[in-house]
Design brief:
Strand order of the largest sheet: 1-2-4-5-6-7-8-9
Oligomer: single chain
Number of helices: 11
Low-confidence stretches: 284-289
Bound molecules: ligand C2E, magnesium ion
Protein name: PAS domain S-box-containing protein/diguanylate cyclase (GGDEF) domain-containing protein
Length: 289
């Protein structure tokens, strides 16, 4: 009987596994056509200067509106795009689209685009960025590339050269999801980041009594200030979180409390109505284009 139950359980699991594998294959195939089908779009979420509540930047966040399944979260499709290298094509599209969209925003508002470690390892990345800036006309200082610590997993001369090439283009670099990876201080010592984005896991519950998150955020802010980098706290949802984060002198705040990611038309609407004021962040721009 035990043997029978075991076998039954095994076949139940293998069917589930088969289903998952098929499901994954379907998504992978559909993702190959998603750009051509116009199913991919960028939504934009504001980063707000914590001392003035004014908008300084928007993060571009990719969305997939599947023709049958509806919206699929980047948490699901980005890993598939990375494994299949489709992220190279999607990522190039995102950089170009974001630069183009940012040209319709008030003059000093930046756009931040997420760059996958797969893209970061692609020697063509600097040329792709350069072309996107050129064809859109966006000032390089208005483009920020968000990179996670995973690009340091294999720290090679290629990694260093990629950082140098991107900096030479004049774009800004942000270290995304700081605190969730290895968070080695040597990354900060060597890599030319302009901003550290503090992962939302440190924000959740940071205001609760006994939480150590406040101390951790304060330490990250002190470190960033000493290294002349900006800081952004991600994922602020509640007023008590906002008050607490502001007291820790984080430079920018990003979270549902200000806005969820929205489409370009809504961004333009908010600026058009005067509802959103702008506040440049970081060093002043050289040119006003
Ligand atoms: P991320 O770069 O860390 O982006 C921040 C995520 O936090 C976004 O999730 C955003 O919608 C979410 N978020 C912002 N404020 C709040 C808040 O107050 N509460 C909560 N609970 N969440 C908040 P999203 O859009 O689902 O993206 C997830 C991840 O997918 C991103 O994390 C990024 O790693 C990746 N991703 C998104 N777009 C792209 C892209 O164009 N290229 C690449 N390579 N990765 C992307
Ligand atoms: Mg990001
Ligand atoms: Mg992040
Ligand atoms: Mg994240």
């Amino acid at each position: 009987a035990a043997k029978g139950a075991g076998r039954g359980r095994f076949s139940f699991f293998s069917e589930k596994l088969l289903e998952a594998v098929n499901e994954r294959k379907i998504l992978e195939d559909d993702l190959r056509d998603a750009l051509d089908r116009n199913e991919i779009e960028l939504h934009y979420q504001p980063l707000v200067k914590s001392t003035t509540d004014k908008v300084s930047c928007f993060e571009a966040l990719m969305r997939w509106n599947h023709h049958e399944r509806g919206p699929i979260s980047p948490g699901i499709f980005v890993p598939i795009a990375e494994e299949t290298k489709l992220v190279l094509e999607l990522g190039t599209w995102a950089i170009r689209q974001a630069c183009h969209d940012a040209m319709s925003w008030p003059g000093k508002v930046r756009v931040a685009v997420n760059v996958s470690p797969i893209q970061f390892a692609d020697p063509n990345l600097p040329e792709i960025v350069k072309q996107a800036l050129k064809s859109s006309g966006l000032h390089p200082d208005r483009l920020e590339l968000e990179i996670t610590e995973s690009v340091f997993l294999e720290e090679t001369t290629e990694t260093e050269e990629m950082f140098a090439s991107l900096k030479r283009l004049g774009v800004r670099l942000a270290l995304d999801d700081f605190g969730t990876g290895y968070s080695s201080l040597s990354y900060l010592q060597n890599a030319p980041f302009d901003k550290i984005k503090i992962d939302q896991s440190f924000v959740r519950g940071s205001n609760k009594p006994g939480s150590r998150n406040g101390a951790i955020i304060a330490a990250i802010v002190a470190l960033a200030e000493a290294l002349k980098m900006d800081t952004t706290a991600e994922g602020i949802e509640a007023h008590d979180e906002l008050d607490w984060i502001k007291s820790l002198n984080v430079s920018q705040i990003q979270g549902y409390i200000y806005s969820k990611p929205i489409i370009q038309d809504e961004v333009l609407g908010h600026f058009g109505s005067g509802e959103w004021k702008i506040e440049p962040e970081g060093p002043a721009l050289q040119r006003d284009d």
